Amino acid sequence: MLILALESSCDETSAAVVEMDEGLRRIRSNHIASQIAVHRLYGGVVPEIASRAHIEAISALTQNALDDAGCTLADIGAIGVTASPGLIGALLVGVNFAKSLAYANDIPLVPVNHVRAHVAAALLADPTLTPPFLALVVSGGHTSIYAVEDYTTYRLLGGTRDDAAGEAFDKVGRVIGLPYPGGAAMDRLAALGDARAIAFPSPALAGDTLDFSFSGLKTAALNYLNGEAQRGNPITVSPDALTAGRAADLAAAYTDTIVRAIVKKADQAMTATGVSTLVLAGGVAANSHLRAGLNALCAKRGAALRMPPLSLCGDNAAMVGAQAYYEYLAGVRGTTALNASASD
Ligand code: KG4
Ligand code: ZN
Question: pTM, whole model, 2 decimals?
Answer without folding.
Answer: 0.96
